[in-house]
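agent: user wants the full assembly modeled, not chains individually. Plan: 1) parse entity lines 2) check alphabet per entity 3) run joint structure prediction 4) return tokens. Steps 1-2 passed, three entities, 1205 residues total. Proceeding.
--- entities ---
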Amino acid sequence: MTVTDTALGPEQLVVAERPRRSRNLHVGIILAWLMIAFLLLAVAFPGLIARDAPLAVDPSRTLLAPSLSHLFGTDQNGRDVFSRVVYGARESLSIGIAATVVGLAIAIVLGFAAGLGGRWADMGISRFLEVLFAFPSLLLALLFVAMFGAGAGSLIIAVGIGSAPGYARMIRGQVIAVRNAPYIEAARVLGHGPLRIMARSIFPNAMRPLLVLGTLGIGQSIVWASSLSFLGLGAAPPAPEWGAMLAAGRDFISSAWWLEFFPGAVIVATTLALTAIGRHLQRRMEGRLA
Amino acid sequence: MTSAAADSQVPDEGLARAAEPASELAVGLPPGRSGRRRLRRVLSDVIGGVIVLWGAATLTFVAVHLMPGSPAVAYAGGVGSHPSKSVLNAIIQEYGLNKPIIVQYLVYMGKLLHGNLGYSVSQQMPVSQVIALNVGPTAELTLGSLVLSWVLAVVWTVLTVRRGRIISAIGSGIEVLTASLPQYWLGIILLEVLAFHLGLFPATGGSGLQGLVLPSLTLALPIAGFLGQITREEFESALEQPFVTSARARGMSDWGVRLRHALRHAILPGVTLSGWALGALISGAVIVESLFSRNGLGNTLLTGVTQQDMPLTIGVVLIVAVVYVVATILVDMVYQLVDPRLRSAGQ
Amino acid sequence: MTGQREQDTYLLSATDLRVSFGSGAAAREVVSGISFGVRAGECLAIVGQSGSGKSVTARALLGLAGDGSQVSGQLEFAGLDLTSMSERQWRAIRGVRIGFILQDALVSLDAVRPVGREIAEPLRLHKYGNPATRRARVIELLRQVGVPEPEMRARQLPGELSGGLRQRALIATAIALDPQLLIADEPTTALDVTIQAQIIGLLRESKRRGRALIVISHDLAVVSTLADRVAVMRDGEIVEQGRTADILGNPQHPYTQSLLDAIPSAHSRGTRLSEPATLRGRLPASFAAKQRESDRDAPPLLTANGLVKRYKGPDGKVRTVVDKVSFELWPGETLGVVGESGSGKTTTGRIVLAVTRPDEGEVLLNGQPWTNLTEGQRRSRRRHIGVVYQDPLSSFDPRWTVRRILTDALPAEQASARARAERIRELLHQVGLSEDMLERRPLLLSGGQRQRVAIARALAPAPEIIVCDEPVSALDVSIQAQVLDLFADLQDELGLSYIFISHDLGVIHHMSDRVLVMTAGRVVEQGDADQIFSHPAAPYTQRLLEALPRVALDGELADREPAYDRSA
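--- prediction returned ---
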């Protein structure tokens, strides 16, 4: 266990690593930010992008295939799917963000209590999390919906609860890693008290991955919320919410594919964009703060 | 910068370490004491599993009592089923709902221990019978998908990891993409292309292997993407390890190193996640079974949830928990087979 | 350099070897036109610090310089032109005619495969015999490299073997097919000195059997006991090469001289190892003349009485890591704590710092209780003892700049912002850092700079004692020299006492007034440094010193056989 300056042959590792930060990664990040910018625009000023009102029924143009005048086609009531997707951004993103906030809030309480509350608290909370892990996320959400019924509010809490155990475990791990980090010991050796160490070092460092976790989590939450909607357990159909649009389009799977394809594609694009940004943030954080 | 990077990679024996490593003192231990250790580990896994199941059952009990409305109505199949007074009275008697909460809890747990999951109003038969009827198709679907996702992930990773910038970028790009595909959307696309347009596979139901292809693929692809990402990361770091260089220096080919050395290291973290993957598969099964109109636990659960049939919902959820716990124990045993380091002492 | 006639006898020769990574504008040359050669039965050592390109050179000789590397120049091995080899031809040479040994077998052997299978691998790859004869050959090889009970060891995983046995097993994989040339990249670096001596013995034996040997190392002492010729590398170039005795005894190039000067040892006691740091602008005059007189008449600053610490191992067995350790530390002195890994020296340091609670015994600070206090009582007195860790980076909050790190370490009474800024400037000056470092994060500093920041932090509360745990082990020898000089200067200036923990006997001898030798948790010997190093009383200390490779300056290296016990 004596030490060396070339433990893992860093010379060649460093050299081989450097030119590899690929350019296509940057292209991906730019595309991701463009997608997010588009979504934010749709949230703030949907009227600027959409050509029709989201609920404008027109019996003369039902179930038209995608064309230049209707990019994403029209639905069974003659509503422009593209316009509905644009108007749906507000509610869908709100649901995703709200669910992530709910999940993270639960997780922060549990994770910090387990990481800092001593041995018994940790054991109890860890066991509790293990029990929750025995229910796959979607099932946990379904159980909640079964208890309190379907609807947008229920959807948010259900998805939040479903994702909380995973976040909680990560936050607990992070709190413990920070608590045991050499720099915490170094602060103790300097004679700092536990409250000061908690406030200045443990708390801010343990919260550090939250930005990444949240970014990745919003994408996940949107997917789960839309899955529940797809199963008929989400927002009520006439609203231009993405999941609800998917649920309504199910009856036309074999005849009008665009009713399912485009709302789904927007969800996938949103998730990918958020994932790419989250990963990018994560990598930058690791690179800077390692 | 080079020296900075070098410093950070140094294996430290600093004060930061709580205890000094024992391995250097012990000049190697004789092998062969592994059997008992393994048994003990399995035993502790089983005890842990039982505790988790007890917790899960308790949680469902709490859930029923937290629900708006009386537990009796919930057991009777929800408000929608309009239970009559006599039915409710019978249920109050059966579950001891007029007794103190602790007695209710003991009655509830006692029923579960005897395998009595209650009666499903929406299916008009005991919950255990509903589950028995539906467990087969779901097991077929999820296990098939698990195998499929592993095969896809491993083959894809071995073929594309560290193959120059372009191929590697495509390889990991596809993994990220598939991992973020919602199952319902992927299923719809597969249906549209392979069933409606090309007519290769039946769109709904369908018995036998042919009917299983589309649902399993739908279920397996996102999970393969996820496993693939993890396997790739491990594979890459394994290929950078000195033991790979020393294997190459012995005259081993690139393929030899990948298959004989790196692969084993690369699948280890994926194996530990297989328990999680099974959970994800069961979540996915709810969607896939609904989309492809297949019989199974997922569709049953969905019925339970939409009809507010609490005994059915809880029954399925608990069965899934049992499956999950058993799977976790099995995964741990598999892990020990793949990673012999756990069998040995000291480390 | 070398003449044409001489070159003919080389088993392997490199002429104008260049290795670069990347292409176009991003290309970076790591090895810039070096030439060398090695004959059968001879050992060539390539020495240099990290980043010198020595490891890449070694890998280039096997065609394994890495992804995206371009190798040019001439490379001849036994009449073959290595530069024009196809991958298939390379494979027929690797392991068969050229063997390769990496440092630290724990990561250089596949951790999930039994040692025997790893050794059998080159045999299988190159179609040696059948499975039964291969098994027999594996056992024979393990015996040859001095592994006891080879049948049992062959079935074990690398992690189940001790460091020395593991390294021997790795050597067995390289010599399995008895290659004409062995290339060893830092073969002894991560090992304790006694094991190091055994591995050097093995390599010498292979040389004696007429095999050529190329050793890559940063350690001039190891090189001097093994190599016939030495090539000194810096920034991808060979600055000097020649016979070992000439290079080490009479170095011509200033870089080689500075490397040799930087090695701490008995010779270097009381002298500077590096050029005086320009920032400090101080002359080493006072230093050379300095007679380290610690004040023994005063009461000891710190007293450790019968410290015991036990840990429960993963197998449930209780191990005593620190066993009845007692010592004193007087004002202004350096107490060196030396021992191999697992000796309990680090745990002893942690007990002194009161971050690990002893199971028995106690530490007194200024005659007052220290380890027996509650953390609350102790907190106000913590400013008396500081610490410098081996890995400074992990001891800094990753979000903080240097300024924040130092501000955080200042005692509370330094209230005004002005006083704080003044004190931080003073600290920076003391450790030889410039003020433009203040806004940087430690990740962007070099290893030496980081350690200086760590020292400044330790100094901030104006302690009397600093516990230094392997503070220079992660540093290149020239940086190490500067940091050791800094420690000495600070002691001079501030009258500090150090508890200096290190595995490196040279560093300990250079730094310490008194020395504590530890093994297996016990103190086997303590006393005056010169006394212990010249007349060790304990058999363990004697063995340790005997095993220690030294830079031999007298030219009679080839005959000095390090003592080693094969059955150990």
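agent: reporting back. Confidence is low (pLDDT under 50) at residues 1-24 of chain A. The domain at 14-54+73-182+209-286 of chain A is CATH 1.10.3720.10 (MetI-like fold).
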